[in-house]
Design a protein that fits this description.
- The two termini are 36 Å apart.
- Helix 9 packs across helix 10.
- It is built from 10 helices and 15 strands.
- By secondary structure, the chain is α/β, with parallel strands linked by helices.
- The longest helix is centred in the middle third of the chain and has 17 residues.
- Strand 13 and strand 14 form a beta hairpin.
- The protein has a single domain, classed as Ribokinase (UDP-N-acetylmuramoyl-L-alanine:D-glutamate ligase), CATH 3.40.1190.
- The protein is globular.
- The strands form 3 sheets. The protein has a 9-stranded mixed beta sheet with strand order 4-1-9-10-11-12-13-14-15, sandwiched between helices.
């Protein structure tokens, strides 16, 4: 039996944000939240009582401990984090806005401890002692070593027979679409769960048409066993190799958009771990709505809340 239901590896940063209506250039105080796509997924699943482990590299300082303290509080195991005596933690700044101004994100993440992590520093036995390994497309462009780690993780997972989920999570400020597509497509082959937004599917892989047609094209390009195509305010479309299933987004008053996609991934994984992909899609849109209604990247919820709210989602099977 595996030690964990899900493990993941990725960078954590500190998010520094100003309230809506405040400009960064005149800000006098900033709200601080730990952040990171992989950590967000692990935190959400751990709050649903799933045993989860997270691997990363952090500076051995108060700033590094901000991250691990938050993850421990959520219930995530952080014993395999590599602590660095030198280096820094990445940060990003958010200026929330309402129309006509878009919300702005400014990254300051170059040369973080995680970008200097090497495959030989990863506790592979820990990372692969799991039912599911979760990876994202954010990690490969951070450094050559980060790309090597993702490649090694996939190779070792396949050798061990460990299922893999992969979230494309394209970040245009990290690399151009042509480079991203050429690098990510080989990494996405034959994964158990593939998460991709309709926009990323078009931008990176040229997938066009209805959501069902886009999902079919992604399946043909990757041979992924399950496709999860996110459709923004329309919800999500899932493909399990036999049928499509749509889940509508829940009505929500948006407070903070950051982290909703990670919450959706956590919900789908939660259902998949129970052997119920359809329920996972319903959990995904529910957790995404919850994330949109809360401040910070890491979702705070519990099993009872998920069970109650997921009954409000509108599922539709498309044969």
């Amino acid at each position: 039996m595996s030690r964990f239901d899900m493990t993941t590896i990725g960078e954590a940063m500190l998010r520094l944000s100003v309230p809506t209506g405040v400009r960064l250039e005149t800000a006098r105080q900033l709200d601080v939240y730990p952040a990171g796509a992989e950590a967000n997924v692990a935190a959400a699943l751990a709050r649903l009582t799933r045993p989860c482990g997270w691997v990363s590299s952090l500076p051995d300082s108060a700033l590094g401990r901000v991250v691990t303290n938050e993850l421990r509080q959520a219930g995530v195991d952080v014993t395999a984090v590599h602590w660095s005596a030198t280096g820094r933690i990445g940060t990003y700044f958010i200026e929330f806005a309402v129309p006509p101004r878009p919300t702005q994100v400014v990254y300051d993440r170059a040369n973080s401890c995680f970008t200097h992590l090497r495959p030989e520093l990863v506790d592979w036995e820990y990372l692969l002692d799991t039912r599911l390994l979760h990876l994202t497309g954010i990690t490969p462009p951070l450094s050559p070593g980060c790309l090597e780690i993702v490649q090694a993780a996939l190779q070792r997972a396949r050798q061990r027979g460990t299922a893999v989920s992969f979230d494309v999570n394209y970040r245009q400020r990290l690399w151009p679409p042509e480079t991203a597509a050429a690098t990510l497509l080989p990494l996405m082959q034959r994964v158990e769960l593939l998460f991709c937004s309709r926009r990323d599917a078009a931008t990176l892989f040229g997938c066009q048409g209805t959501p069902e047609e886009v999902a079919a094209q992604l399946a043909a390009k990757t041979a992924a066993r399950h496709i999860v195509l996110t459709l923004a305010e329309e919800g999500v479309l899932g493909w399990d190799g036999q049928q499509y299933r749509r889940e509508s987004a829940l009505p929500v008053q948006i407070i903070d958009r950051i982290g909703a996609g990670d919450a959706l991934a956590a919900g789908v994984i939660h259902g998949w771990l129970d052997g119920n992909f359809a329920a996972g899609l319903r959990y995904g849109v529910t957790l995404a709505a919850l994330a949109l209604s809360q401040h910070g990247d890491m979702l705070i919820t519990n099993q009872a809340e998920l069970a109650a709210l997921s009954q409000q989602s509108g599922s539709q099977m498309i044969r």
